[in-house]
Each structure stands twice: as structure tokens, then as C-alpha cells.
Design a protein that fits this description.
There is one protein chain. With 149 residues, this protein is of the alpha+beta class. The protein is 30% helix and 26% strand. The protein has a single domain, classed as Tetrahydropterin Synthase, Chain A (2-Layer Sandwich). Strands 1, 2, 3, 4 and 5 form a five-stranded antiparallel sheet that branches. The longest helix is centred in the middle third of the chain and has 19 residues.
């Protein structure tokens, strides 16, 4: 049986843009015209928000994979130059985020416990600052889910 533990951490739920479909401009909202690439709903009015696709890491216990830790998040970057830099460095950021989340899942998380969202946020913020080489980008944690195997 699959058990989901959902923890809402902020009022802003970060998700992949394709998950939120809105009617295309001039449409009636009932599937007339346009594909998913044309239909998107912003989850915030902030121009500085950069959504991240979900990040995952394996959860181990007793030398076996017991589940998957998944987080959804985004970056709030008011400075347009730093935002452009973050978007250029997104592959490096994602790689570093997955590595940091995997370290957390392997060293700090005990299978069956509630994930420490404060620790996850801190680790991800440190990772963001390290990859970008400066402060100015806030890591916003939207949701933490444990998918049991």
C-alpha cells in the first residue's frame, strides 16, 4: 500500500508549469484551441519567481530502498541579472539540489519519521548560494512528500 505524507510549508505551492493549465488567451477555457505549451497559469504574480521541477531522492532502511523523498520548490530572485544567471545554471543547480537531497535522505532522515523541512530548506539555500556564488536568491520549499514502496 502506498502511503503519502504531505507537508505544506509555504502558502506558495511550487509545481511544474505544465501541471497548471489555464485557458489560452481569447479561449473559452473548455479545450478550444492551443496545446499545453500555450496554456499555463502562473502560481504567483512575482516576476522574480523561478519554478523548479520536482526533485527526488531514494529513502533507504535496512539496506533496501523503502521509498522516495520528493520536494517541490522554486527560487525567488528579484534581481533580473541573477535570475538570468540562475536560469543559465539550472542544470548545475538541479544536479546540486539532487545531490544535497540525497545526502539529507541518506544521513539526516530516518525512514518513518516526518522529514525535517527546516533542515531541507537550509541545505537547499546553502546549495543555491554556493552554485550562484552570491546571495540574492531565496529557495522556497513548497511541498515535501514521502512515497513509500
Amino acid at each position: 500500500m502506498t502511503r503519502l505524507i504531505l507537508i505544506l510549508l509555504t502558502a506558495m505551492l511550487a509545481a511544474t508549469p505544465a501541471a497548471f493549465a489555464a485557458p489560452p488567451s481569447g479561449g473559452d477555457g473548455h479545450g478550444s484551441g492551443g496545446g499545453d505549451s500555450e496554456r499555463r497559469r502562473m502560481i504567483t504574480s512575482s516576476e522574480g519567481y523561478v519554478p523548479l521541477s520536482p526533485l527526488t531522492a531514494s529513502v533507504h532502511a535496512d539496506y533496501r530502498i523503502r521509498g522516495v523523498l520528493q520536494i517541490e520548490a522554486g527560487l525567488e530572485i528579484p534581481d533580473s541579472r541573477l535570475r538570468a544567471r540562475a536560469q543559465r545554471l539550472m542544470p548545475r543547480l538541479r544536479d546540486a539540489y539532487v545531490a544535497a537531497l540525497s545526502r539529507y535522505a541518506g544521513a539526516n532522515y530516518r525512514y518513518g519519521d516526518v522529514p525535517d523541512t527546516d533542515r531541507i530548506s537550509l541545505v537547499m539555500q546553502e546549495t543555491t548560494d554556493e552554485i550562484l556564488g552570491q546571495d540574492g536568491a531565496d529557495f522556497l520549499l513548497g511541498m515535501v512528500i514521502i512515497h513509500d514502496q
